[in-house]
Amino acid sequence: MFGAEYAATGQFTALGTARGVAGMAFLVVLFFVVTRELRGGERAGIDEEMNLLLASPREIVVAKLLMHTGTAVRFVGTVLAAGSISFALGAGSPVVALGLLAGSALLIVSAVAVAFPVAVGTQYSFKRFESVRKRRRLLGGTLTLGFATMFVMARRAVLTFSSFPLGWYADLGFILVTDAVSLTHSFVVVAILPLALAFNLTVVSRIGELSWLTEPGGDGLGTETRSSDGIEPKAVEMVVSQATAAGITTTWRRVYRNPNVLMYSLMFIPILGVAILPVLNTAPSVGLSMVAITGAAIVGLGPTLNPIGNEGAFIQVPLMTPQGCRHLLAGLICAVALPGVLLVSLATVIAGILLDVSVSVVAGSVTIGVILVIVSSVSSAAVGILFPQYEGTSIVRNRGMQAPQTEAVMIYLLAIFGLGLPTVYGLQMVPYISTATGISQPLTTLSVLVVTALAAAIVSVGSWRYGLGKLQALEID
């Protein structure tokens, strides 16, 4: 489209958009390089320690830069190349493609050269400083949430990055297209690459050597004790039985050690949040109910969606005890439902205060949220048992968890919203139902909530029986 406009008018008016896209592409490369370098965890440190016997730290840095560049070219580079060629074809000028491809190549290589020191420095800080290492999961979750939000709000992100220096690579790419580009911007982005490469070959190679030869303390190589995460079952035993409390704390420990199981929850927060925002502005009472439903749905996107796969080889233990499956399933559900009820209720109340809706609407939305949190916890466990994720399951991974199957996520969301949305519609119809039947509005609202609770009870009991039956029917290999 922009290429055809340029061919027809001889003017390029989308330089700001191009800068925003370039800024997003730079951050995408940075995100993937950092996460891929850190994802190796303890295994990466062992590999690099062995590599240091065969090559110098500088040679390892060069090899890693080339590896990450190849990966970035394969994923991000193909998209940028396709856009560059499309613009050049629309403009009818093959020469334009050369400038765009050169700018894209420089963007990728520079992004890798900037991202790698960030990854190595972060990796070293995780191993060297215990206070930082304890908060690495918070850092990873925040980074993932921000990355997902950037894509969900892509249009606004493009507008934001259009004024950031990260977008200056577009000036270099379109230097043959328009005089509106800044030569200063082009010079700066060209100068960044040799500086970043020199920094990698000198400082980063030394930091990398220290990082690869540093033994992580505490939880770095699985040396942490069972109670090192501070999660103990004593407080939970005041609410549930001892066996269920053990299941709850075990689930919390595994989520703490491997928060990747919350990936879908983090991804759907911005996705569903963007969908709710227009409703909050136009119909606050409906939007508040949607906040409660969405919060409940997000709660069930965690560890309950893959009970069998998360247990791994240790699923044999509850199968060999009389009440083992019941305690396993109850502990898993309660581990999600207990914090879920608190978080969804708190989020709904805060949203109600900000929207300035009546107390009765807030109370009704909180009630819906609590009901659906319980349903989501039980039904997601049943769906997860129906669609288990076994990939990567082994006896050495039982301390963590893994993300569920995509099919389980989709079916679960359809079930929860299929139960929650009719409730929202029923609450909006309360005035009409009250007028038609002559029943007061508070009593009509209570009737809608009672019907929702009965439907939720039926779904919860059915999901519990199905999940428990499937667990008890498993055969030990």
From TrEMBL:
Lineage: Archaea, Methanobacteriati, Methanobacteriota, Stenosarchaea group, Halobacteria
Name listed for the protein in its UniProt record: ABC transporter permease
Keywords: Membrane, Transmembrane, Transmembrane helix
Protein source organism: Haloarcula saliterrae
Coiled-coil intervals: none
TM region positions: 12-34, 72-91, 97-126, 138-154, 174-199, 261-280, 286-308, 328-355, 361-387, 408-427, 439-461
